[in-house]
Design brief:
Elements (H helix, E strand, L loop, with lengths): L7 E5 L10 E3 L25 E8 L4 E9 L5 E4 L1 H4 L4 E6 L5 E2 L1 E7 L4 E6 L21 E6 L9 E17 L5 E10 L11 E3 L5 E9 L6 E5 H12 L8 E2 L2 E3 L2 E6 L2 E7 L4 H5 L6 E5 L2 E2 L3 H8 L8 E6 L5 E6 L2 E3 L3
Antiparallel strand pairs: 1-2, 1-14, 3-4, 3-6, 4-5, 5-9, 6-7, 8-9, 8-16, 10-11, 10-13, 11-12, 12-15, 13-14, 14-15, 17-24, 18-19, 19-20, 20-21, 20-22, 22-23
Length: about 350
């Protein structure tokens, strides 16, 4: 695995209706060792079949977002990026070939691998994406990314380019300042824009060989994708229905607060009435220092702990109030949006 290169600012991380975040990325533009390519002939897949537009309502953020997904099953299982579904309280999924609209629920997700699976409501006999997980990639091969460009809907837009590097490592930072490292990423010069996230990166025969996850806004065309074989490993783990160190399945614990990082912990800037923090007596200005026995130094620490908690089960919490007095208590998380 290549060492992490110096970061380059100005990459969209969350591909939304508007650019809500930036990505600091580490990608070498020079070719890496090619994995080789196949010479076996294969029929060409029909473009856009098995692609969906995903629209989310961010109920606790007073916002909306958009991305793309790929249909994995005839009954409506959809593969997308975790950052497409993060914070969503409602989903609208549109099959781009039939133009039918569906509701959806979260099956599970992996924050660290940026993979998520949705289930479309009352869906059947859908056409699925043609997967190219067995296709061997090489630097220089032509590719096309397809997605819900700028969240405008309609037929997916196509961003064409070539693979410029394989097995890259990128450091991604979202709008809240959290960062994550994604490994084994495909780097291309396809000019992807906000909205492509979760959509397919296809080969010349329109087989999905990757899932688009980020793109450059620095003036240099760069598109980055998670290899489809890698994404499917986590999708299949989610389908098994059991949480692990990398996969979360089931309801997500929610404290009902908006947090801001400080030097002493995660400060509460807003408390939602009737939610867990409100019931526990926490107020805006309090700084959470421990949750469920884990020391808290940032809002990302809290999000990490929440993935291990069960909604409806009380856990200990510690905080300092506006007078800098240490407080202890118990909090019972409710069920909330995905992390």
């Amino acid at each position: 695995m290549p060492a992490l290169m110096p970061t380059v600012p100005g990459l969209t991380r969350r591909l939304l209706l508007a650019v809500l975040a930036t990505l600091a990325s580490a990608v070498a533009a020079s070719p890496a060792g090619a994995a080789g390519h196949t010479t076996r002939s294969a029929p060409q897949a029909t473009p856009n079949v098995g692609i969906v537009d995903i629209y989310t309502t961010l109920g606790f953020q007073n916002g909306i977002a958009a991305g793309t997904g790929m249909i994995l099953s005839h009954s409506g299982e959809v593969l997308t990026n975790n950052h497409v579904i993060r914070g969503a309280t409602k989903f609208k999924v549109v099959d781009v070939t039939t133009h039918r609209t569906y509701g959806a629920t979260v099956v599970g997700y992996s924050v660290s691998r940026d993979v998520a699976v949705l289930q479309m409501a009352s869906a059947s006999k859908l056409q699925t994406i043609r997967l190219g997980g067995s296709v061997r990639m090489r630097v220089g091969q032509p590719v096309v990314a397809r997605g819900n460009a700028q969240g405008l809907g309609g037929a997916p837009k196509a961003a064409r380019g070539r693979v410029i590097a394989l097995h890259r490592q990128i450091v991604a930072k979202d709008e809240s300042g959290d960062s994550e490292t994604l490994t084994n990423v495909i780097a291309t010069n396809a000019p992807v824009v906000p909205g492509y996230s979760g959509g397919p990166l296809e080969d010349a025969r329109n087989r999905a060989i990757g899932m688009v996850t980020a793109g450059s806004t620095s003036g240099v065309h760069r598109g980055f994708a998670i290899p489809i074989r890698q994404a499917l490993i986590y999708a299949r783990a989610i389908e098994k229905g059991k949480s692990s160190a990398t996969v979360h399945v089931g309801p997500t614990a929610f404290l009902g607060v908006v947090l801001t990082d400080t030097s002493t912990g995660a400060a509460i800037s807003q408390v939602f009435p009737g939610k867990a923090a409100d019931a526990a007596g926490l107020v805006a200005g309090d700084v959470i220092t421990s949750l469920s026995g884990t020391a808290i130094s940032s809002s990302s620490d809290i999000r990490h702990v929440l993935l291990s908690l069960v909604p409806g089960t009380a856990v200990p919490i510690e905080w300092t109030d506006a007078t800098h007095t240490a407080q202890t208590g118990s909090i019972t998380p409710t069920s909330g949006p995905p992390q």
